[in-house]
Give the backbone structure.
Amino acid sequence: MKVRTSITLSKDLVEKIDSLAASYGNRSALIEKAVRDLIAAREKMDRDQNDLEVIIKQADTLNSEAMNVLSYQVDL
């Protein structure tokens, strides 16, 4: 379901959007794709940040386990 909305953009941005719009069907389709892509990128950044925080919290345990595994493979 589509919802009609109104936004205000700078003239130069609208000109750039219009120059690309035909590749996406129309101006609305281009803007919708751009916003969806931006949201997806932001969500991925948030997931990556959460993953990094978990790894950092568990770093000592993970490093200890890695050293333990390596001790079976090579002399340390």
Q: What stands out?
A: The helical segments are 11-21, 27-57, 59-71.
